[in-house]
Design a protein that fits this description.
single chain, mainly beta, 8-stranded mixed beta sheet, 6-stranded parallel beta sheet, 26 strands, 7% helix, 36% strand, globular
Length: 199
């Protein structure tokens, strides 16, 4: 049995995949830049589209979150965020990218499921904020993130603020990247450490 969404305007009905495709195309037009041939799965969420640039041949799975914040809780930042995704990037299901400063993802990058990339924290991690629920604390912009070309980021990886991952790296599943990873490296663990070089 096929399930359909009913469009409010008129009696026209769309299959779920077609409905999602139309929804993505409408959102894509609000981005700062969008290349050719992009496909995104259902359940996606976009915040701050005017600060997000995506290259050609972008593919994403279900429940993608691309969030770019120019302020939080009524306080505006002194500069605009910049989230840049290169060409031929593939992001699988349930990945979240949170940008308040600058995040750059190079060409040919692959994200496994449940990857988190964020350049900001809720609060300053101080005693003055201990009584404030984390979601009510101000958003603090931290260091820029740069992910080089042809990087493979495994399932459940977290990439933290101020990190650079060099070209051609592989980041093993469940790793937490807290410092720079040099080019042509395999890194794994919490915190992520280089375990071998690709030669």
């Amino acid at each position: 049995m096929k399930w359909y969404f009913r469009v409010v305007t008129g009696m026209m009905e769309f299959p779920p995949k077609a409905f999602n495709r139309v929804r993505w195309l409408l959102y894509a037009k609000t981005l700062k830049k969008i290349g050719v041939n992009s496909h995104v799965g259902s359940g996606f969420s976009v915040i701050g589209a005017v600060y997000i640039s995506i290259g050609d041949h972008f593919i994403a799975g279900k429940n993608l979150q691309l969030h770019a914040f120019d302020g939080y809780k009524g306080n505006m930042f002194d500069s605009k965020p910049e989230l840049v995704i290169g060409n031929h990037v593939t992001i699988t299901d349930r990945c979240y990218i949170s940008c308040a400063k600058q995040i750059e993802i190079g060409d040919g990058v692959l994200f496994g499921p449940n990857v988190f990339v964020g350049d900001n924290f809720h609060g300053s991690i101080s005693m003055e904020e201990i009584e404030i629920p984390p979601n009510e604390r101000q958003l603090f912009r931290k260091g820029n993130i740069k992910i080089g070309k042809n990087v493979w980021i495994g399932r459940n990886v977290c990439v933290m603020p101020g990190v650079s991952i060099g070209d051609n790296c592989i980041i093993g599943a469940n790793a937490v990247v807290t410092h720079d990873i040099p080019v042509d490296s395999v890194a794994a663990g919490i915190p992520a450490e280089v375990i071998r070089k690709l030669m």
